[in-house]
Amino acid sequence: MAAHVPLLINGRFIKSRSKQTLPVINPTNQKILAEVPLTTPAEINAAVRGAQEAQRAWREESLPTRMRLMLEYQRLLKNNLLPLAKIVAEDNGKTLEDAKGDVFRGIEVVEFACSLPTLMMGETAENVAKGVDTYSIRQPLGVCAGICPFNFPVMIPLWMFPLATACGNAFILKPSEQVPLAAIRLAELFMQAGAPKGLLQVVHGGKEQVDALLTHPDIRALSFVGSVAVGRHVYETGCRHHKRVNALAGAKNHMIVMPDADKNQTINALVGASCGAAGQRCMAISAAVLVGKTRQWLPDITRAMKNAQPGPWKNPKADFGPIINKISLERIRYLIAEGKKSGAQCLLDGSKCKVTGYEKGNWLGPTLFAKVTPDMSIYKEEIFGPVLVTLEAPSLEAAIELINADPRGNGAAIFTSSGAAARRFQHEIEAGQVGINVPIPVALPFFSFTGWKDSFYGDLRTYGKQGVMFYTETKTVTTRWLDSNKKTAANMTIRLK
């Protein structure tokens, strides 16, 4: 019998009382790794109450104390990087190198949280009126929550709870029900680092549990990463219940290929950005816009993509792993078939891919389409697989116009040797994260993750300075201290007492 994934409630890992569970399935072979419970309403309430109690004491701890917790946590995470990566590889199916990258990018956010004392500083102005000074201070919100996707089981939880707790909040983490195992290990290491009992709570489940967090009156803020449809639901529901919400949603990220770009570097970047992590990342390049004569590069792009092959994480030659589940795999296969029906030219079809010895795995090989137009479903839908569609544009102006017409705006890239083209692209493109000869331009955590349009719902972004603002309230204090030798209303009040 598969083990039950525990809840973390008030400093104890416990078995849920829920009778409902979901299987945690290894996508390379369909073996059940564990059973994850659908947390009961009583357990969610207990988690919130415990978080409130822990936060009341934690908010009074000094900033250096919180910083030292993060320093110790990042040390433990680094010491456990490989074991954590192996959990991710088994749970999610990523290659080992990709899983190690998942862990390391999360550690970078914890390292950023170590600089919190400076980031929590307010502002001061003297003599805003005669003898009157004003200053601002940052204070924690209270209990915050995070809802995580399957594709980065370590990185995205670490985007959330370390910064939130460093700011003085308590946190309730709901990892993806498809990949909950790494989150449990993250919580164990957090407590080992010295986190107070109840500061981090972990619950599991699906939509019902998400809605319980969204509507709970004692949760002040909620972070989410996932699809556009769910992101919109999270944002609208959370806002209706008076919560601060940032919801990172889906994407259709483009790369413009200019004729003056370095051909080999561009093609290598394009293949890695479209097939890496099996295309299951919100910053994957899933649409290439070939400008002018670069349409002639398609045979070379086809050959390069054909060399990228999926496989199990224990195979060091595998370039990427499986699709997360059977439903997602069938959806991608359906979109590939629809692309063919709509008239797109399928130069490489990975929909019938098999991996020897792992025939039950959710395998999808690299897939490449040419002659794609914006009205086709293969372009309009976020595929979330190793599928690249190519479109053609006569000029940089036309390529920018095409990209800006898309309702999503997570990221966009251009490959060129022209500074003028790069400057125009970065100025005019309607996307939050822009790459110039960089295919996946996710900035380091001292910046913020800045999706635009339907790729983001909210005001303040994730991590970076905006992340600190998201997890804190600003209080403005205006003071006036009168000369004790003067007769004032305040002095009179004192004498009367």
Automatic annotation (TrEMBL):
Keywords: Oxidoreductase. Pfam families: Aldedh (PF00171). Residues 13-477 form the Aldehyde dehydrogenase domain. It comes from the Bacteria. Gene3D superfamilies: Aldehyde Dehydrogenase, Chain A, domain 1, Aldehyde Dehydrogenase, Chain A, domain 2. This is CoA-acylating methylmalonate-semialdehyde dehydrogenase. SUPFAM superfamilies: ALDH-like (SSF53720). Belongs to the aldehyde dehydrogenase family.
